[in-house]
Amino acid sequence: MKKQQILILIFIFGSFSVFSQILNLPPRSASAITGSQFVSTISSGSLSLTNRENQIYTEISNGNVPDFYRNLVPVKSYAVISGSNDSITYYVLPDYLAVGTDTNYFLCPMSPMLATQIADLTGCTLPTRKMVNDIWTAAKVKLAPSPISPGPLMTTVPVFDDHNTIVKGQRNAVIGTYPLGNLVSGDKKDVVISNSIYSTANRVVIYGWHQTNGSPIQPLSNVHADTYMDYSHGIRLIQNVVTYQGAPTTVKNILQSSTLNSLLSDEGVISTPQYPYSTVVSSLNKPTTFAVTRFSPTAIKIIVANDADATHYKVYTSTNGISYGAATTLVKTNILLSGLTSNQLYFVKIEAFNQTYSVTSSTSEVLAATTSVNADSILIVNGFDRMVTGNTSNFIIQHGLAIWNKQKGFSSATNEAITSGVIDIENYFAADYILGEESSVNETFSNSEQTIIKQYLQGGGNLFVSGSEIGWDLDHLGSTSDKDFYNNYLMASYLFDAPNAGTANSCYLSKATGIFYSTDSAHFDNGTNGTYNVSYPDVIAPLNGAVADLTYCTSSENSALHFNGMFPNGTISGKLVYWAFPFETVYNASERIDLMSVLIDYFFSNETSTEITAKKRYDYKVYPNPSSGIFNIEISKNDVDKSLTVFDLTGRVVLIKKIENNIEKIDLSEFSTGIYILSIDHRLQKISVVQE
Fold first, then answer.
1. Do the beta carbons of residue 508 and residue 524 sit within 8 Å?
2. Could you tell me which residues are beta bridge partners of residue 412?
């Protein structure tokens, strides 16, 4: 009896990139032009080659490629190594590089200069002659070559487009049997890597265009200058990263190896396995715009703003924030740490890495996330960037440990990730903003941060913010808009730079009117208790219905407040707790844990699970559920034209599809039993596929 597939969908939301066997480009914009529209923009005979190729690069680097191109296809190559049969698997673009959509794309002939630039951008290389042969052998779709009569127009865009139409007609004729994404060969010649690149200067080397009997029309040739291309030239990208005998390496390393080159080359060693047009990367910027998010009960996702010079990230993890193991190197499009221990707190720091040039950046600040069974309802934001004595850039330790002691799942982000849109604070029920001794030099809250925080509080957010210079920056030295934000959203008025007539002390105690239980005094650091000296903690007064919580011990001047109610222009009641000294400097750890416990109880008191998750408004329906593998996604109008990605728990993408209708039919019936993840925009859903 034929097994029946049952599909069970359980939704989780967040932002996803894709696994290493995916073309390393951003998602295609819904407003991007189609292939035929692009042809119209580059068809002018007066357009120079440089300007045309600049336009091609812009479209491709912005992700304007068909969705089915993103899933790279495995190809296996064989050779005898040291007297024994051996093999290696590499991953290739399913067809030649194109601009446009699945239904309207343009296969782009281009120079080896541009091809090299795009290969570098995407962490890829071009194939060798042997690899072109292997790709033809592995191709499920073997198209018959369709030459156009030679002539002076064969190097022009209109003829490129004519051939594109012919090839697409051939491809569409077999699309019912072989859907888009299957490996295609026979439609173009390849621009290849070869020793012939350097036997004569400034040459393009071409090979292939296999006939259906397997014989190539084009022998290996470097007769043309590197500025020459005609309608028959195609660019096939090959992922540079490969695994050989369980160890990571690269296509280029294999080609340079005196013992392993025959796996990928029939020319022997190719000592310079690239065209001489690569931009050498000599240094990388330290990652500053990133987030570390809970992905599942056994996985953590790291989301980093794109750095064109980085191909990978080195990821270090720790369960205590102090001791870190060896780095895990992951391709930048999918920095997913899977197979982790469930219900565990993980601290993370990262380094940008360029594999081609073996260049590594300095190490980032430390962030953290939990592999909680429950959703991550809290976001910790580190905005303490000021380089002062004692800023070790890891105060996520004090905040994270205190939150996790309460068994609340959380994710974290840099404040740059908030303002750049890498992560959305609106998706979290509560936020903990670390501002340490951030002051006017670095800004406590920039104008863009103020806008984001206002919207968060107006929509019912729950914000805890702590730092010693916030009032000094915003109310004492700030602009009119800074003062408005401080007075009406942090609900405070700045009074003095430090208690006791400007002489700081490191003691505070609770007020009977506040939310904290104890009236006992406790302390924050003067520089001798493991963090840093809080030299000038602001003295503040509550405004607009806020209530004082804590005072400085020897002066009874206010050091903290809380507010519960509607913020200006708000639609849902929100909550605020603001401390004029940094939470992380409270000692000892038990005091911090007790204080955070009170904060969490305050934010989450009298809230149902529905209210807590109301921040995550998904607007999705999936049915039938369970299903036989074919189901519908019903989505709001605002989410039409966004991209759906489905991948398994290894990170392998199994489907990329543009959502074009309010009700979209999805077919996963060909896939096997397992857990899958569905990603639309910044929102994820877990999918369980079961065969019976």
1. yes
2. 292, 380
Contact 458/567 with Cβ under 8 angstroms? yes
Contact yes or no for 433/456 (Cβ under 8 A): no
Let me know: does 412 contact 348? Beta carbons within 8 Å.
no
With a CB cutoff of 8 Å and minimum separation 6, the contacts of 459 are 426, 570, 571, 572, 574, 615
Write down the domain spans for the chain.
Answer: 32-263, 430-606
E strand residue ranges, 235-342: 238-239, 241-244, 247-250, 290-296, 299-304, 312-318, 328-331, 335-337
More confident residue, 669 or 420: 420
Taking 70 as the threshold, does the pLDDT of residue 682 lie above it? no
At position 501, the amino acid (one-letter code) is A
pLDDT of residue 610: 40
Q: Which tens digit of pLDDT belongs to each residue from 507-537?
A: 888 887 889 876 667 899 999 999 999 989 9
* Of 142, 317, 149, residue with least CA distance to 215: 142
Torsion angle defined by CA atoms of residues 26, 28, 29 and 33, in that order, rounded to the nearest 10 degrees: 130
Tokens standing for residue 103: 């239904």
Residue 422 carries which DSSP code?
A: S
Token pair 């029920």 is found at: 429
Q: Is 48 helix (H, G, I), strand (E, B) or coil?
A: coil
- Burial category of 652 from C-beta neighbours within 10 Å (exposed 0-12, middle 13-18, buried 19 and up): middle
Question: Which segment of 120-124, 305-309, 557-561 scores lowest on mean pLDDT?
Answer: 305-309
Residue 561 forms beta bridges with which residues?
Answer: 548, 578
CB contact at 8 A, 337 and 346: yes
DSSP state of 528: S
Pull the structure tokens for residue 357: 């040039």
The neighbouring-strand residues paired with 316 are 349
Nearest to 295 by CA among 241, 239, 244, 334: 334
The hierarchical CATH code for the domain 430-606 is 3.40.50
Q: Which helix (H) or strand (E) holds 609?
A: helix 609-612
